[in-house]
Structures are given as structure tokens and as C-alpha cells.
TrEMBL record:
PANTHER family: QUINONE OXIDOREDUCTASE-LIKE PROTEIN 2, SHORT-CHAIN DEHYDROGENASE/REDUCTASE
Protein name as annotated: NADPH:quinone oxidoreductase family protein
Organism expressing this protein natively: Ottowia pentelensis
One example GO MF annotation: oxidoreductase activity
Coiled-coil portions: none
């Protein structure tokens, strides 16, 4: 097997493509031949030693992938050799093969392409948990999605529309705003050329959004929260801007608003039955054509560094996926 190995987490340039022995699965594990792996923002942070999860060195980055099971370990009865699965295990995806805990593998129904499957779990699970569980989004409410042209933003638009909400998508270019409208956004804001607060005021007739979906952080968080509606819910999803913002707590008092943390990974660990039901619903929505990841581009696994560069340049609309021949 071959894999991108991180032996020193100082950045993407330190990654090396190496030939390694193909491992045998231990108890509770499966060996997966990887067909596709998607690039997520944590995959950049983890090789820079900036992510909250710090794996033991050396490690293979790549949190999310899909492929075919080639071997199963002792005690694995729910999966079998030849079965197609998707997995989000945190590491291991940027390779030709990986070992994964069987309990983290999601069996794929017929007709679920590996490229879509590799770009599915993290973004849709995060947005479903954020909007419908933590945000308690209701039909008729207005949602502001920041960073709306990215992976989680894309999924948030689609899920909010399924819930019957009005979606205002905010992105950094006119091209990205047009992409958000293609996904179903009702209105868009280009926050590079338009004042976020003034535009929100105009679009909501001064009421402000009911729910703010914020995977960006940075300077836009406070501007968005100052615009939130009465009893609004500001969902803290991530910090793609690189800066963790601070908000004066009196703003929550004045607005009667809530700042709500979203940590899907821990939700899945602490509430596995609820997470399994959620994933079943998401797979059903995919089968019905209600949700579908938009793939910015597919790139060969060997071009991982170029994929990182594209993501870091903020050019990506939807998801980047690396594929093995």
C-alpha cells in the first residue's frame, strides 16, 4: 500500500508519499481499499498541529473516505469482504488502504458512488445535528449561513430548505453566491462587497435571522450576532477564518438569543442511537435526491498537496475529493 505520511506536523509540505506494508485488521477492525477520500478543513489543521485531536506520530491524514472492505478482523460480523462502506475515522484516508474500526463504517446502499460517499458524512451529519437538533430550526424561520459555498455551508443550505426555512447564504464572491443560489438559497450576501449587517437588515425587514449557521468565526461572527432576531440561535460550528472570535455577553441578553455549541463528533460518541437514526435519515434523503454533495473537483490521490493548496486559497465550492486509480 501507499500513503501520505505525516511524520512532523509542521504543514502540508512535510507530507511524504510512502510505500508501507499493508496491515491486517485487528479485533473489531476492517481493512478498506480506499476508492475516494474528501478533503475537510480539519485535515489541514491536523497536519499543522492546530487541531484539537492530535494523533500519535507518524500518522496518515484524511478523516473521511469510502471504499471496499478487503478483510475483517476478529469479532466483526456486521460487515463482510467486498462490501462498500464510508467511514469518518479522523485519520487514514489519504492512502490506498487503511484500517478502520468496524463500528465507524457506514454500509453503502446500491447506487451510492464512492466519490459522493467520501464527501457525505462529515458535512451532512454536522449540519443536520446543528440545524435540526441544536438549532431546533422550524419551517418558516430564516437561516443565515456563513461560508455558504464551502462543504458544510453547502449541506446547511440543502438541509435548511428540507426543513422549510428561508435561507440567506453569505459568501465571499459573486461566483460563490451564484453557486449558493443553485443549491437553493433564497437570498445571498457577498460580504466582500456588501455590509453584512445592513444587507441582513434589508432582507429581514429589520427582524434579523432566527438561526445563524457559523462555520467561519473571525470578524463576521460578531457582525452576524448583532443582527440576530429575538430568541435567535447562533450555531458555533467552526473557525475556518482561523480566528476564534470573542463576543460581549450582554449582546445575548439584549437579543434574548442563544450561543449554541455544535460538536457533532462528541454527539455521535455520547448519543450513538440518536446519531444512527440521523444517519439513516440522511442516507434516505440522498436516495430520494433531496441532498447531494456538490464536488468542486476530483483529483488523483497523488495530487494531495495541490488539493490542499486549492482549499487553502478559498477557491473551493462544495467538496474536493481525492481518488485512487
Amino acid at each position: 500500500m501507499h500513503a501520505w505520511l505525516c511524520e512532523d506536523p509542521v504543514g502540508v509540505d512535510a507530507l511524504t508519499w510512502k510505500e508501507l506494508p499493508t496491515p491486517a485488521p485487528a479485533k473489531g477492525q476492517v481493512l478498506i481499499r480506499i476508492q475516494a477520500a474528501s478533503l475537510n478543513f480539519p485535515d489541514l489543521l491536523i497536519v499543522q498541529n492546530k487541531y484539537q485531536f492530535k494523533p500519535e506520530l507518524p500518522f496518515v491524514p484524511g478523516s473521511e473516505y469510502a471504499g471496499v472492505i478487503e478483510a475483517v478482523g476478529e469479532g466483526v460480523t456486521e460487515l463482510k469482504v467486498g462490501q462498500m462502506v464510508a467511514c469518518l475515522s479522523g485519520t487514514g484516508g489519504f492512502a490506498t488502504h487503511t484500517l478502520a474500526p468496524a463500528k465507524l463504517c457506514m454500509p453503502l446502499p446500491p447506487g451510492f458512488p464512492p466519490v459522493d460517499a467520501a464527501a457525505f458524512i462529515m458535512i451532512y451529519a454536522t449540519s443536520h445535528h446543528a440545524l435540526l437538533d441544536r438549532g431546533q430550526l422550524k419551517a418558516g424561520e430564516t437561516v443565515l449561513v456563513l461560508g455558504a459555498a464551502g462543504g458544510v455551508g453547502m449541506s446547511a443550505i440543502q438541509i435548511a430548505k428540507i426543513a422549510g426555512a428561508r435561507v440567506i447564504a453569505a459568501a465571499s464572491t459573486d461566483d460563490k453566491c451564484a453557486f449558493c443560489q443553485q443549491l437553493g438559497a433564497d437570498e445571498t450576501i457577498n460580504y466582500s462587497t456588501q455590509d453584512l449587517r445592513e444587507r441582513l437588515k434589508a432582507l429581514t425587514e429589520g427582524k434579523g435571522p432566527d438561526v445563524i449557521y457559523d462555520p467561519v468565526g473571525g470578524a463576521f461572527t460578531e457582525a452576524a450576532f448583532r443582527s440576530i432576531g429575538w430568541r435567535g440561535r447562533h450555531l458555533v460550528v467552526g473557525f475556518a477564518a482561523g480566528e476564534i472570535p470573542s463576543i460581549k455577553i450582554n449582546l445575548a441578553l439584549i437579543k434574548g438569543a442563544s450561543i449554541v455549541g455544535v460538536f457533532w463528533g462528541d454527539f455521535a460518541r455520547r448519543e450513538p442511537a440518536a446519531n444512527a437514526a440521523m444517519m439513516q435519515e440522511l442516507v434516505g434523503w440522498y436516495a430520494q435526491g433531496k441532498i447531494k454533495p456538490q464536488i468542486d473537483r476530483q483529483m488523483p490521490m497523488g495530487e494531495l498537496k495541490a488539493a490542499y493548496a486549492r482549499m487553502n486559497s478559498r477557491q473551493v465550492r462544495g467538496k474536493l475529493v481525492l481518488v485512487n486509480d
